[in-house]
What does this fold into?
Amino acid sequence: MRTVDELIAEGVRGRRVLMRADLNVPLDDSTGERVITDDGRIRASLPTLQALREAGARVVVAAHLGRPKGERDDRYSLAPVAARLGELLGVEVPLATDTAGSGAQAAVAALSDGDVCLLENVRFEAAETSKDDDARGALADRFAALADLYVDDAFGAVHRKHASVYDVATRLPHAAGRLVATELDVLTRLTEDPQRPYVVVLGGSKVSDKLAVIEAMLPKVDRLLVGGGMCFTFLAAQGHGVGDSLLETDQVETCRRLLAEAGDKVVLPVDVVCAEALVADAQVKVVPVDAIPDGLKGLDVGPNTVDLFGQHLADAHTVFWNGPMGVFELAPFTHGTRGVATAVAAVDGLSVVGGGDSAAAVRQLGLDEDGYGHISTGGGASLEFLEGRELPGLAVLSGGAG
It folds into this structure.
């Protein structure tokens, strides 16, 4: 797989480079303005973007935001992203008026060496996510007409067979961006020869979302620590009542089987923080996991669980953490995620934060990002890689044109 630095060494000055980036940032529009609440993914795109600019490339950035239904929807316009990207780069970043039409053509034509423009949301085009190869191919042809070279730096989208991720790479000489190369290196270290003890921490709401990665990783890890809403299905599998906590009844038998197969590898919470309702001023009660009252919801792991998980993390040399321990967005339920995140950061070895809500929690809780070996932007892509699945965006970078 060729890297962007190899591409740069071959010479990109004056050449148009289509760079697929992952700029799918969270927005708050409660005040009537669309405000970016976490610019981590934009900042993660900067190393590749700056390297191309400094080498004199004319950079055309393609990205998606949210899930518009294949047509223009200004709620999902990349305008706030263009503004923030410009602030971080210290230059104006024009936003094309469309994705791959006359507006995009005009924006690209106006570029000089070292300039950057941003195409409008690629998901405004229905063909971007189409299952029809011909439809995606036609859009990829339009993307390819805007550029001479293609760089994929959107690791968070490499598990998608989309026009701007997969099909365009079959039409242009291509390379992996620095972020994609780093993600691939780190995740390969997690799967092929991790330094032990190797501990995985999984949270989030649903077992069903993480089932495949649990199945794939259990044989490889020394400990699997389970928190978040998904822990209650495991606790139910042990015979505990879970009150009004989140429960996937159709996964209880699966969790029972996993616990039987895993032996002492799976570590579950020993106490939880409960409340009647998920509100910012909730009155909370900390209870053992075998005494969750009817009518209360478990919304965070408790202090004894944080201590327990911390003990398992203390001697680890490789850690992968994906998913918060509770509803960290609300103050009464932040302590579990903060405590586990702090323990992960203290690991003497490779600590990997697996993107998505985990990365958002690190930033929202004001933790030092430099305390972690790697904060992934991957989310679902990271999990699918760890499951051992082939990711279309990576597979195409390893072959085809270029």
Residues 328 and 335 are 8 Å apart (CA to CA). The mean pLDDT is 94.
